[in-house]
UniProtKB/TrEMBL annotation, chains A, B:
InterPro entries linked: MoCofactor_Util/Proc, XdhC_CoxI, XdhC_Rossmann_dom
Annotated ranges, domain XdhC Rossmann: 206-349
Protein name, UniProt field: XdhC family protein
Protein species of origin: Halomarina halobia
Region (Disordered): 358-382
Length: 382, 382
């Protein structure tokens, strides 16, 4: 597997799934459906393995990739989905010269054929969905790989393969997971079936209000770290799509039209960096009328104080009621001053806020480093 | 100026300086030599501007770049170094629709000719040096741009243009700045001259002990963020240079030979991620016999505890005496689990340790966000 494809961000994995579902070239999708012990990736981590072995996406840190590629070719050949359990908990293995990835990992392998198109369009849409797939079945009418795409309101997409009783039984969990983007396996009570419910939440959006040179490294860093990135200028700047080719979208607007021209919701992480005092002060006031959980403002603390002082009574009240969402000076305190270092500190801060973390050293964190989704899922790596 | 060249890390700026000093194509070097108020870059920030206007490196967030490019072409034409002061403190400008970069910035512009070769080789070497350049002179025998490369021991390189009395007067400051990589202007008492002392410290090294797929995004993230990156494998892995093309160096060794084959000093930030228990435990013990200020270990807390338990009495004592330098689980607590997100969290942590920062939100930091080098240098951006 080529290394940069291995570390492809989730949006690239999704677009590869869509491309392969719509292609003559055969491929398989590998998904981590359960982990116990210290696994590198969480349930829901995916890799597309094309016939011949090229892959996109990450299942493990490399220790299982060869086995998975081999199994993928069998699944492509047979057309039959399967779940395989890798048990690397063996003490001898840990102590010896083995692969050293301790933990038990269940991986679902499915042929990426036309039956995947509803899933692929679900990924491509910006609507939350849960992909519910049978991973264990003691019933004649359900085989491993049967799946149905479920919306948060409980409705299902065309082509669903699971009985409605199963879908109904997991509908609440599916709605939650579709919204928070997490994934887990559920043994459906009384149904002799275990399904993997893969929550596909829309990616968080990094909305950058500014078009300076310093926006380029921020766009790139945001994309790599799993944000959709939108660049918004206020000065009718030309050629934004050319200047910021990695951005998912670029556009210009008058700052007064900001909230009508663009959507700022609870998934939008906004960074105000027009470097123009008038535009920045207006943008801050407008953005705090929305539900953005994060508003980073480039510039020193004193500049934000000047902005506050420049507001009228009502604007100031609005802004001061939202100071918890205002991050200025923007970024984590890493001490770096180069353009890439500043981008790293800003994206790291947005990630921490998105994941509801207090961004100190992990070594100082109490409890497990991953949010607990399943018993025993406590570690990153090895 | 092309945007990705604008955000070039410092090592690329240095290699461009070396290339242009040794080239027929004419170019100028722009260096921030003093700032007051809220400037985007600190003293020592550099951009190379080639004849025609192509640039590499960052002086401001874009607000002065056009002016600097124009001035650079004059300096290239005249062959005469000059210092120019940009005063963007004007209230009208801040409030109006102007460039909005408030602060006073002094920029030194010099023709990048063959006289720059001693400086270029100083950059290329991994030895600390200070480049001392006259930026103000009321004397007949010294003109703006006269320079001498000074070593921490006070010795000077060939081709020095400044009188020895000036070099001696700033030798102590030069030694400090050469070591910490910071830069500042010094008015030399009684000499009617102000010099800019540009400390060029060797870049910090990110030493990655591991060769898995997950090393690739870490190499790239480390490079962008200003580290020299060394990848070290223990298993005689082939083709490391091909697999990690962005690394400055790759190699394999037996873990027992680690400290003899490689240098680990107070500038080395080590990340242990072989994913092999035996190799990791040996590497941790070996690295803690060196002066590395940072040892990040991939894997959950429990794994490090297992490693500790596996040591004999003496090894355990050595390691336990150094727990302050051990960062495990490695990285900042950002909550991200993708390969790029993990790389971001690790590099962010190494940066914070390198810059002696407590990595919380900048908004919560007491005092200025930059280390104070000159009075009034308090802000990042705008």
């Amino acid at each position: 597997m080529e290394s940069s494809a291995w570390s492809a961000p989730v949006h690239e994995v999704h677009s590869t799934i869509a491309a392969m579902a719509d292609s003559d070239r055969r491929a398989a999708l590998a998904t981590v459906v359960a982990v116990e012990g210290s696994a590198y990736r969480r349930p829901g981590a995916k890799a597309v393995i094309k016939e011949g072995g090229d892959g996109t996406g990450t299942i493990t840190t490399g220790c299982l990739e060869d086995e998975v590629v081999e199994l993928a070719s069998k699944v492509i050949e047979s057309g039959k989905p399967t779940v395989v359990t890798y048990d690397l908990m063996d003490d001898d293995d840990v102590w010896g010269l083995g692969v050293g990835c301790n933990g038990i990992t269940d991986i679902l392998l499915e042929p990426l054929d036309a039956s995947f198109e509803p899933v692929a369009s679900a990924y491509a849409d910006d609507d939350p969905v849960a992909v519910v797939t049978a991973v264990e079945s003691a019933r004649d009418d359900i085989v491993v790989g049967n799946r149905t795409v479920v919306r948060p309101d409980g409705s299902t997409d065309e082509g669903g393969q699971l009985p409605i009783s199963i879908v109904d039984a997991v509908a609440d969990a599916a709605a939650d997971l579709a919204t928070n983007g997490k994934s887990r396996s559920i043994a459906v009570p009384g149904e002799l079936v275990t399904v993997f419910v893969d929550g596909v939440a829309p990616l968080p959006v990094l909305a950058i209000l500014g078009t300076g040179h310093d926006v380029v490294p921020l766009v790139e860093c945001g994309k790599r770290n799993g944000f959709r990135v939108q660049v918004i200028g206020f000065r009718g700047g030309t050629d934004l799509a050319t200047r910021f080719p990695k951005a998912d979208g670029t556009g210009t607007t008058r700052v007064a039209d900001l909230r009508t021209d663009y959507t700022f919701d609870e998934r939008t992480y906004a960074v105000v960096m027009s470097h123009n005092f008038v535009d920045d002060r207006f943008a801050v006031a407008e953005l705090l009328k929305t539900d953005v959980p994060y508003l980073g403002l480039m510039g020193p603390r004193e500049r934000f104080e000047e902005i506050l002082e420049s507001y009228d009574e009502e604007q100031r009240r609005t802004v001061e009621a939202s100071l918890g969402r205002v991050y200025t000076p923007v970024g984590l305190d890493l001490g770096g001053g180069s353009p890439h270092q500043i981008a790293t500190s800003v994206v790291a801060e947005a990630l921490a806020v998105h994941n509801d973390r207090t961004p100190g050293h992990l070594k100082a964190r109490e409890g497990p480093i991953h949010d607990r989704v399943e018993l025993g899922s406590t570690g990153r790596g090895p």
